[in-house]
Structures are given as structure tokens and as C-alpha cells.
Write a structure and sequence with these properties.
434 Repressor (Amino-terminal Domain); XRE family transcriptional regulator; TransReg_Diox_bact_type; Lambda_DNA-bd_dom_sf; Cro/C1-type_HTH
């Protein structure tokens, strides 16, 4: 398995309607960058992403892959999921403290390789960050790496889980994996067929960088 830089997803050109979620995520990235007193050039140097792409992303004209969101989040002292969640409106805190329900058509979404990730909670503070992943990519792309522990379980399909420095593990429906923070990780379809997973990451503690 080799590392491959995943292409960013281009959105319609400026003369078309800009994707609303991409616009909100871009505005949030710009606000964080300015708060950190970084120029686009400096952010590009920190992330390894191109200055033109970051400029397009901040304006909502390009949508970053999940790997790129992870790089941007690390450079801006936030999390990949927090950036993704910025694309969804924040819901008011329920008065009755009842369950937070997310319907099947809801949840902020982000692209990765030839699939998509969906945030399984509404925007706002949570004790953990659950994501739904669907894809059929046979190349794992770059490693994700963050300080928080993570758990995943496969709902359908066969997945190759690559933990940096360890043997690649094949996981099928009903199989799960848990790995500690700081472990580089990536995954792909074992045979080119579609896979479906739930991935749950700890929410960073206050004051801890991504």
C-alpha cells in the first residue's frame, strides 16, 4: 500500500451557486487563520497545501478532502470534525435535555477519495465525534494522525486498515478496531467493492492541539 495525495473536489465556478456547506467551512477557516494572524502563504507552508487551493477553499469554491481538513485543522489548532461541522447550522440546546436526533438526510458532509464522510451529530460541543464513512477507494491515501484515541466498526464491505508501522489488517462486517492517539491510520476497500463504517474519535480536551 502506498501513499497517494487525494485530489481536491472542485465545486462549480464562481458564476454558479456556491455550495453552502463549502462556503461556511471556508469562512470558518478564514476566521481561524486570521485569528491566528497567519497569511494564506504561511498556512500553505504549515499544511503543505497550495496557496491557490487554500484561497479557493476559503471562498467556498473548492472543497477540501478529509485528509486536507486534518492538515488545516492541525495548523489552526482545531480538529477536522470541527471544521466539517462548521458547514452545518448550530442547533439550539434542547430545553428538556432530551436525545439529540439526527435524521438520515442531515449531518455535515465531507469528501474523501471516492467516497464521503458524514458527521453523525449536529454542530456543537460533544464528548466524542462520530462519523459515517462510505466509499469504494482501493488506494488508502495519506495517513490521518491526531492526538485523540479512535474507534471504528465496519457495517458492510471489507476494509484494509493500515496503522503506520504495523501490519495491515483486513476487517469485515462486524469487525472493529481501536487505536491510540498519535497512531497514523488510513483505510481502503480490500477488493474495490463499497464499504460502510462508523468512526468515533475523542473530542480534544480544552487547550490540546489537534
Amino acid at each position: 500500500m502506498h501513499t497517494e495525495l487525494l485530489p481536491e473536489r472542485d465545486l462549480p465556478t464562481a458564476d454558479r451557486v456556491v455550495d453552502e456547506q463549502a462556503r461556511l467551512v471556508g469562512e470558518h477557516i478564514r476566521a481561524l487563520r486570521r485569528s491566528a494572524r497567519l497569511t494564506l502563504v504561511q498556512l500553505a507552508e504549515r499544511t503543505g497545501l497550495s496557496h491557490p487551493f487554500l484561497s479557493q477553499a476559503e471562498r467556498g469554491h473548492s472543497r477540501a478532502s478529509m485528509v486536507s481538513l486534518e492538515k488545516i485543522a492541525a495548523a489552526l489548532d482545531t480538529t477536522q470534525v470541527a471544521l466539517l461541522a462548521a458547514g452545518a447550522p448550530v442547533r439550539d440546546e434542547p430545553d428538556d435535555r432530551g436525545p439529540e436526533v439526527l435524521r438520515s438526510g442531515e449531518g455535515a458532509r465531507g469528501p474523501f477519495s471516492s467516497g464521503e464522510a458524514r458527521l453523525l451529530v449536529h454542530a456543537g460541543p460533544h464528548a466524542f465525534e462520530p462519523l459515517e464513512w462510505k466509499g469504494d477507494n482501493t488506494e488508502p491515501g495519506e495517513y490521518f494522525e491526531h492526538r485523540e484515541d479512535e474507534f471504528l466498526t465496519v457495517l458492510a464491505g471489507d476494509v484494509l486498515l493500515d496503522l503506520r508501522g504495523q501490519d495491515v489488517v483486513r476487517l469485515g462486517p462486524g469487525d472493529s478496531a481501536y487505536y491510540r492517539g498519535g497512531t497514523g491510520h488510513r483505510w481502503c476497500s480490500a477488493d474495490g467493492s463499497a464499504f460502510h463504517m462508523i468512526v468515533v474519535k475523542e473530542t480534544p480536551r480544552a487547550g490540546a492541539a489537534s
